[in-house]
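Do me a favour: review this protein, sequence plus C-alpha cells, and tell me how the chain folds. Record follows.
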Amino acid sequence: MKEKLLVSSSPHLRCGRTTNRIMLDVIIAMMPAVIASCIFFGVRALIIVAVCVATCVVSEFVCRKVMKRENTIADLSAVVTGILLAFNLPVSLHPVMAAIGSVVAIVVVKQMFGGLGQNFVNPALAARIVLLVSFPAQMSTWNAPFYYLGGTDSITTATPLGILSEGGGEMPSYLDLFLGNHGGSLGETCALALILGGIYLVIRRVINPLIPLCYMATVVIFSLIFGRDILVDLLSGGLMLGAIFMATDYATSPINWKGKIIFAVGCGIITMLIRIFASLPEGVSYSIIIMNVLTPHIERLTRPRPFGSKVRKEENHNEA
C-alpha cells in the first residue's frame, strides 16, 4: 500500500472556524452598542472602552510572558473582555479604575486559571463586581444622556431600575428605554443596538439563541407573577447585555441544550429575586456569576447517556 493511514485523536471533522474568527464576530456584534454609547455619553465613553481594551491586551501579553506561555493576544479574546467590561461601567468612572478592573479580569480571573476556556466565571462580570465592591460610589454614579452637550460633567441621573426600586422619579418612556435615552452603564442602555448584535451572532452561528430567549422568558414570567412592568424589566438594566453577550460565553455556560435551559432559567430567577427582594436594583451580574459557578454541576446532571448503554446494562443483568 502506497497510501499511509494516519491515526490521530478526535475531532476528525473540523468546521474551519477559529477562535480569532469567533471573537471578531463578537466584536463586530458589539459595535452598534459602542456607537450608541458614544452618541449618548460622548467621547468619554470611547475613552473608557479604549482604556479597558488596551489594558486587557497589555495585561494578557505581560502575564503570558511572565508565565512563559505562548502569547494569545492574537485570538482577540482580550479585546472582547475589554469591551464587555467597559459596557458594564458608568461613563463617569475614572479611567484608572477601569484599568484596575481590566487587570483583574485578565490576570486574576482569566490567566491565573489557565487562560481562555479555563476560567470558571465570566472575567468582565467578575471584574465589575470587584470594582463595585471597591468603588461603590463611583460605580453607582450615572450621567444623563447627552450630558456633554451642556458643557459639564455634573449632570447625573438615576437608572430606570433605580427609579423603580426607590419608588420615586419619572420613568423613561418605552421608546427611550428601547433606544437607550436613559442613565446606565455604557453598553446596557440601548436595547436596539444589543438586539442587532444578538441577531448578527445568531445568523453567524456564534451563539445559540436558547439561553437568551429562556433567560428573558423567565424574567417575563416573574414580572407577570409579581405584577411588574414587563417592558421595563426587559429593557432596563443589564438584562439584554447579559443575556446576549455574557450568559452565552462558551467557557462558563453549559454545552448541551438541557443544561442551557436550566442555566438560563436560573439566571432569570436569580435576577428577578434580586430586583424584587434585595436592596440592589439590579441582579444580572450576580445571577450570571452564580450560575457560572454551578455550570459544572448542571453539565454533570444533564450529560447525555451514551448510546446503547441502557441496553447493555439490561443484557448484562439478564446474563447474570
Summary: The two ends are 46 Å apart (CA to CA). The chain has a mean pLDDT of 88.
